[in-house]
Protein 1
Amino acid sequence: MTIDPVWMPLRELAGHVRARRVSPVDLAEIFLARLEKIGPRYNAVVTVTRARALAEARRAEQEIAAGRYRGPLHGIPYGAKDLLATGGGIPTSWGAAPFKGQQLAEDATVIQRLSAAGAVLCAKLAMIELAGGMGYRQPNASFTGPVTTPWSREAWSGGSSSGSGAAVSAGLVPFAIGSETWGSILSPSGNCGITGLRPTYGRVSRHGAMALCWTLDKLGPMALTADDCGLVLEAIAGVDPSDPTTSARPYRYAVEDGPRRFRFGVLAGALDGVSEDMLAAYRRSLDLLRELGTVEDTALPDLPWEAAVRIILQGEAASAFDEFIESGGVAGLTAPEDHFMPYARDAVLAKDYVKATRVRGVMAREIDRIFERFDVLVAPGRLTVATPLDQEFRGGMRGTSRDIMGAVGNGAGLPGLIVPNGFGERGLPTSLQLMGRAWEENTLLAAGRAIQARSDWHTKHPALED
Amino acid sequence: MTDREAAPAEVDALLALVTARYGARLNAAQLDGLRRAIEAVVDQARAVRAVRLGNADEPTPPFRAYRGDERPTA
């Protein structure tokens, strides 16, 4: 093999696979070896799925040789957050010690769709226990240990799709699947300096994914570029009879070749609590965005958006894990705060939960009205660069900071994209987040591609220590 | 009772409910943490209760009647 597939964007890698300049089996072997050797440095991997990967890679190789090319993911290795069910004896741990070794009967719909696209599952990736739904507030909240960003062994990868972020960043897989209830794709993508896409609620089936909050959970791609995310989204999107929340709206990833002007908006409050280094990178990004279109401030009505979404999250998470919490199973979790925080959710009253879902309706209408005037809302990707491993993190989900973009984006089920945009304190990646109108992933991806065509932050990769 | 006075009373009442259910499992430090967590729950609930909504402002997503032979159409 004469090409180096590590950190190669998917479209380029797919071109080599299709032209048979690189074999899917060789690709699988390269990434399996990296997962096995480098993955443990970051606590990024729960299970390397070697036997399945090689079987899928051999099948891909035979099909491509026979002229049956399935598309740009055919023969491409990937990793899945360990909340996605896998059959065939591959355990699904949900990041939690009490569920370690859990065997589920069949693959999640997303895994099935990636298999149908010819992708090669190489690993189940580490995550915050129960997707962070029990109230964790520091990085050591997985039975596999805290995942570190490949940019520093002393800083957190973010969560809850922790291993998905670290594995893509370290070049252990070309892309990964993560999930987001509130921040769980954007946080690790930002901390690890990669590109992550949170699709519109209902775009991607959650069948076979651990349920944390039925009305908030989304699955999406984490990869090197916006273009990569589009290619993966097309493979996993679509209606699924097994997930009644999925939409019948068809999705095709549209790569527009012509120039386009964007109307960018900045929500009032979106900069509250953001660190100076993140703000500096954000201001530089605004200069770039002004080359792509207009940038104007806007505002939502001053209502308790974060509080409403927290009530919904806490109420649904408490119900989703009702038996586990009632039985005292939380005592077996890793984070000390997860041993008692779930009990506080009994204090969420039914009337308050219903009121929060009604406020959510107002939120959805108000933000949609704003999108009549803007294509994309932008903000710093996170409040800070990656948190040191021994410190608590801040965030809107915890209630320790404002997070208007996270609350509205997740509360209203809107798509979000995060791209790297520089480096801040301790040499750690900074990021820019973009939010679009419901079902406008292609607009977000077009903006992401335009940004990445005019910058090179997405081509920077960590120096991996031995 | 003013709104400001009511919050601690609400926290106390809810804490009593939760500790009645689970208190035997928790040590003193965890009970302290539980109180702070319930204070946060009460704070966010009071913020949401203060929002004025109309009678027709429905929960989102709305409930839909179920038929096993229907496929999602949204």
Protein 2
Amino acid sequence: MSGNLLRRVRVAEVERVANRIKRFRLVDADNAPLSEFSGGSHISVVMHAGDRLLRNPYSLMGAPSDTSSYQISVLNVEDSRGGSKFMHENVSVGTELEIGQPLNLFPPAKLAKKHVLVAGGIGITPFMSMMNELDGLHSDFELHYGVRSLEDGAYCKYLQSRYGSRVNIYRQDQGQLIPLERILGDQRLGTHMYVCGPKPMIDWSLQTAKLLGWPDENVHSEQFSAPPPGKQFLVKLARSGREVIVRGHQSILEALEENGVDAPFLCRGGACGQCETQVVACDGFIEHNDHFLTEPERVSGKKIMICMSRIQTGSITLDL
Amino acid sequence: MGLTFRNETFRDDFTYTNSPSNIRRFPFPFVEDQYRYSVNIEPHTPGPKGSPFEYHFDVDEHYVSEMRDRAMVLAADPLRCQALPHMMTAQWDMLELLMTSLARDYPEHFTLHRDGSAWHWINRPLGIDQKFTFLDASTLPYQPMEFIGRQVQGDFSIQDQRDNQLWMDAGIITSQADWSLDFDVGMNFFEWHGPVPLAHEAGVFERALKFLLNLQIGKPVRRLNWTMTINPRLDTSPENYHKWASDRMTVTPENVGKKVHLRVEMQGLFRLPRSNAILFSIRGYLMSFEQIVTVPKWGRRLPRVLASLPPELVEYKSLGRYRDMALAYLAPYDDGAPTSPGGGPD
């Protein structure tokens, strides 16, 4: 039941689209049609980076109806755990990779009267397919896209030429900031807001919406963050009696997989809830890094999302 | 293998029956002698050749007659087929999934030609030959869900996914076990399951919803559900309650074997790719007790299961009035011998 159907793909095109951002076009390794997908979907890309097995999520950017290829954009992150560096340095035209089926944890709300999209930097990627879908459905939307500079922001020209005045770009190097308070303060009822970008920007956007009285149901966010590193600790598996060491740069899930333990997962970003695992015992402090568990569930200490969360030190016994 | 389609009725004179060759492929839902409630969801992967699990959408000898009955229900009550406006993309998703599946799995009966958005669909058993433009509903005689829904056995509902919930926002439901699309349309997963006894307390629906919200493209799942129906009637809807509820009064010790039918639903759940909605297929199978007991294992097991039902379920499935008669009818077929695990015949 764990994991995701995998499909072999081949890199058909690589293009540098901005500072430290490359766009990859992927086709089925046997040239079979790929699955259609819905706006806001992502895929996970499996990477064998040296002796490490990584699966990073990347938003699909092309037209959802285009089954001939998928497109993703990858920012080369400075403190990368190896995934984005691998994509930038080891992947070129002709490289074969494995990907999961599209998964959508960031869909546009179909009943919204209007959609306000707020992107920061590489956070533009899920909105590429979302805008394509919304445009096709003649839905009302506007994009607010913050970039460091035009050299750092991907697809600025493309977006402006395709969607015209619905696209608003804010350049940090020119001192421009997204006037979120004004934007969110002046929307009609039934508008939904979506934000994707760095964590501080997401927190600021959610907070701004809350202060302006937006209902929680109308506010959506997506953030792909790598599992934060920490110190090495021990995981004991109650059912099999096995013990697995989680190294400082690994997630529990990655350590289990490295040791051949089949644990449930899907999004690997702490959002979908698939890897929720019962804690049998724990002598350390749990660092919950997911977006799934409720506050009371965290406080109870009885559940952990093993794709993202870890303990500071010591050992934890899981119902696996 | 070509199918021979039976010409039969599901109302009035009730000529429906299973051919001898069709009996053994009945999806008997009880995998052990004791009744036990479970969500029993499993991957909808291809089953044994000839079984109802062989393909995602099973076509059998009742196909043509069932589609005729559906057309009669829709003519009398168009509200059995409804789709909220935001479900159009999902309707096309459903049409594509059904057409591509049927054309692939039953090439002697169905053909689909696709050239970009120019599609050509041929349904030989029903004599349909339709050219249309994919994603342009004006090129079909019905909306996409109704067009294909009139050509596939079983009921269908489509669930929109939003706010970490599933919403029944479309469906074509003409052969239901006493629930109403017109009543349920627009409800969420917890609301439309409101009447089900026992399972809410057990947290079954919270777990099932969480599972379904993460249902993946290309990894459908299925489960079996069951109830009993008097006479082989497909349309046991609340809308027509006055027409069928009194049938329960007509069961006698003499006719119980002919009148009482085990009604099994093979329920499939499919993630639809373009809309991110979920298609729920409810494919019903009917078999009289008289035919069930021709399989010795089922004749032994069915009375044991019926005797072990909790009272809440006896009431929920409206079995109370005739359960004792059914048990008396079945008793001679249970010789006390052990039964093999699983639902299939020995």
